[in-house]
Amino acid sequence: MNAILLTAIWGIIMMFGGVFFKSKSTPKYWAIAGLVIIIISNCLELTSGEAFFAIDSNNMLSFNSFNLTFITVALVSTLLFFLLSGSDIEKVGDNVSEYFALIFFVLCGVCLSATYNTLLILFLGIEIMSIPLYILTGADKRNLKSNEAALKYFLMGAFSTGIMLMGIAFVYGGNSAGTFFINDINMGEGKMPVLIAIGMVFMLIAMSFKVSAAPFHFWTPDVYEGAPTVFTSFMATIVKIAGFMAFIRLFENSFGKVHGQWQLLIAVITAATLFIGNLTAVFQQSVKRMLAYSSIAQAGFMLLAVFALNDTAKEGLVLYAAAYSLATIGLFAILIKMYDYTIDGFNGLAKNEPVLAVTATIFLLSLTGIPLTAGFQSKFLMLIAALRDGHQHWLVLWAVICAAVSAYYYFKIIQAMFFKEAGQDVKEHGSIAAGSVITIGFKALLIFTAILLILLGLFPFLLTEWLHY
Amino acid sequence: MFGNDITIPHLLIFFPLVAGLITFFIRKESSVKAWSLLSVILTLIISIASLYYRNDRALSGLNFNYQWIKYMGASISLSLDGMGRLLTFLTAFSFPVIFIASYRNVYKNTNVFYGLLLLAQAGLMGVFLSSDALLFYFFWELALIPVYFLCSYWGGEKRIAATFKFFIYTFTGSLFLLVGIIYVYLQTGGTPFSDHSFSLQAFRAVVLSSAQQNFLFWLFFVAFAVKMPIFPFHTWQPDTYEQAPTSVTMVLSGVMVKMGVFGVIRWLLPIFPLAVAKFDNVVIGLSVIGMIYASLIAIKQDDLKRLVAYSSIAHIGLMCAAIFSVQSIALEGVMIQMFSHGINIIGLWIVIELIEKQLGTRKISQLGGLAHKAPVLTILLVVIVFANIALPLTNAFVGEFMMFGGLFRFNIWYAAFAGVSIVLAAVYTLNMVQKVFYGATNSITESMKEISLNEKLVLILLVVLIFIAGVYPQPFFELTKDSVATITARFK
Question: Which residues pair with B132 in a beta bridge?
Answer without folding.
Answer: B199
